C-alpha cells in the first residue's frame, strides 16, 4: 500500500501520528507527513485506522 497525506486538508491534529507513528509524523511545519511510503504489512491496519479517524479525510491509501 501507498499512504499519502493531502497537505491542503491536514489540520495537524496529530491523530494519525499517535495511531501509527512508524508511518506518520508531525513535522515542524505543523502538518502530518508520511515517513514510510511503502509500509510493511504489519503496519497496514494502523495506516487504515489512521485514515479512518482523520477528521478531514486528508489520508488516502493506494492499495
Ligand atoms: S489525522 Fe488527518 S488532520 Fe490529523 S494530523 Fe493526521 S492527516 Fe492531519
Tell me about this structure:
The mean pLDDT is 98. This protein has two helices and four strands, in the order E-H-E-E-H-E. It is globular, with a radius of gyration of 10 Å. The protein has helices at 15-19, 44-53; strands at residues 2-5, 24-26, 32-34, 59-62. With 63 residues, it is of the alpha+beta class. The strands form two sheets. Strands 1-4 form a two-stranded antiparallel sheet. The protein has a two-stranded antiparallel ribbon with strand order 2-3.
What layout of secondary structure does this protein have?
Elements: E1 2-5, H1 15-19, E2 24-26, E3 32-34, H2 44-53, E4 59-62
Antiparallel strand pairs: 1-4, 2-3
The structure holds iron/sulfur cluster.
Bound chemical compounds: iron/sulfur cluster
Total tally of structural domains: 1
What is the ordering of alpha helices and beta strands? EHEEHE
Number of strands: 4
CATH fold-level assignment: Alpha-Beta Plaits
Mean pLDDT, all residues: 98
Taken as a percent bin, the fraction of beta residues is 15-25%
Question: What percent of residues adopt helix (DSSP H or I)?
Answer: 10-25%
The structural class is alpha+beta
User: Low-confidence runs (pLDDT<50, min 5 residues)?
Assistant: none
Q: Count helical runs.
A: 2
The protein's oligomeric status is: single chain
Main beta-sheet annotation = 2 strands, antiparallel
CATH architecture: 2-Layer Sandwich
Amino acid at each position: 500500500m501507498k499512504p499519502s497525506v493531502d497537505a491542503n486538508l491536514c489540520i495537524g491534529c496529530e491523530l494519525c501520528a499517535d495511531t501509527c507513528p512508524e508511518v506518520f509524523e508531525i513535522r515542524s511545519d505543523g502538518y502530518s507527513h508520511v515517513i514510510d511510503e511503502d509500509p510493511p504489512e504489519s503496519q497496514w491496519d494502523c495506516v487504515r485506522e489512521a485514515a479512518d479517524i482523520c477528521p478531514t479525510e486528508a489520508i488516502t491509501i493506494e492499495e
